[in-house]
Amino acid sequence: MSGHSKWATIKHKKGAADAKRGKMFSKLAKEIMLAAKSGGDPGMNPTLRTLLQKAKGINMPNDNIDRAIKKGTGELEGGSLDPVTYEGYISGVGIVVNALTDNKNRAAAEIGHIFSRSGTDFAKTGSVSRNFERKGQIIIEKAAAEEDKLMEIVLEAGADDMIADENGYEVVTQPAAYQGVATALEKANIPTVSSEIVYLPMSTKAVTDLATAQSVMKFVNALEDNEDVQNVYHDAAIPDDILSKIE
């Protein structure tokens, strides 16, 4: 998500996620498994605690969560996963793909095929990701909180910034401060639209042509459909009226 298009992007992605909820659970289970390797107690593992909040937000069944934690801690078999990152460009838009896989060769071949099918290829490692920053990002609807009170809560909890617009608020944190801010919002009973650690572009590329926007989002959606892909980040700034026309 980037720039003024983040709200339309959220709605676009939510619609796609609702249609593929089972795949969404599977992807999150992988993240939980990887995090649980460092300890299955969320009270002592902030990364795991963050993921469990995310799981709660999408109504992931408790059995799925417990099974993923046990695989990660070794109580159940099947917890061997490796994180892999792929980078590239499409129509001048930078793309960063984060994957978790039990077979790096398969993941590279399948994701590489998606790139080539879209007329592009992997870029050199670091050439795209250097233009992104790892940040905590929390999105809150306008009606969920009064602006001054919300700003007081998040800044006291350690947030870097809070950006307000007509739709709501975007709270940005350093990764280390994210959990404290998320917990402060939870204690204040302020619901969030999305809350996670993401890669935010340091600058964006304006995409105002519908055909180009469709090409970019088709590529992003194809990547997200791959079973090993966890997250796809891009630096396209697509206006809401253009994004809303993309199916």
Q: Looking at the structure, what is the overall shape?
A: globular
* Mean pLDDT across all amino acids: 88
Order of helices and strands: HHHHEEHEHEEHEEHEEH
Tally of extended strands? 9
- Low confidence ranges: 1-5
Q: Would you write up a description of this structure?
A:
By secondary structure, the protein is an alpha+beta fold. The chain has three domains: 3-73, Integrase, N-terminal zinc-binding domain (Arc Repressor Mutant, subunit A, Orthogonal Bundle), CATH 1.10.10; 82-130 and 204-243, Alpha-Beta Plaits; 132-201, Alpha-Beta Plaits (2-Layer Sandwich), CATH 3.30.70.980. The protein is built from nine helices and nine strands. The chain has a four-stranded antiparallel sheet. The protein has a three-stranded antiparallel sheet with strand order 1-2-8. It has a two-stranded parallel ribbon with strand order 7-9. α2 (21-36) runs antiparallel to α3 (46-57), α2 (21-36) runs parallel beside α4 (62-73) and α6 packs across α7. The chain is globular and about 50 Å long. Residues 1-5 have low confidence and may be disordered.
